[in-house]
Amino acid sequence: MITPTVAFVQWFDNIPLELRKYLAHVFRVCTTEDTSQMAARSDQSLTGFRAWAVKKDFPLRMAAKMFYIRAVFDMVILHHKEITDDDGSFGLLSQKTNIVRLSAKQWETVINSWITLRQDQLSDAYVHSWTSWMIKQQKESQ
User: What are the extents of the domains in the chain?
Assistant: First the structure.
């Protein structure tokens, strides 16, 4: 059984680099209480996000992390048109250094691959099943 984390990271690592930076930075902006983190460079956001996303933890926390990531990514990916400025940049980031320009075809590919991941390894049923399996494994090893 592939873990939700592994499935997510495989998907994430296969989208365009600039989009990975953007998503990681928007995740940081949307979830941090530390306003100084909002001014971080997008490459710093990417490094920090990816390290946090793959960090091993106990099953319930790992499941919660996947639901958390899924919720923010849903908002950004599925509603990218609504949060795009007229000039094609995103209002959450500096327009000079953090513009993510993807063609309609690229967005379509990203959206379709995200929806597929959401319906498979990041679905509620899959994440809950994986979590239950991990908890059972832990109990049996004690």
Answer: 4-141
Q: What is the average per-residue pLDDT within 106-135?
A: 93
Spatial contact of 32 and 38, defined as CB atoms under 8 Å apart: yes
Tell me the C-alpha distance between 37 and 64, whole Å: 22
Q: Which of 70, 60, 72, 68 is nearest to 130 (CA)?
A: 60
- CB atoms under 10 Å from CB of 65, counted, come to 18
Structure tokens at 139: 């109990």
pLDDT in tens, 36-80: 777 778 889 899 999 999 999 988 899 999 999 999 999 989 887
Rounded Cα distance, 75 and 21, in Å: 16
Would you give the end-to-end CA distance of the chain in angstroms?
A: 22
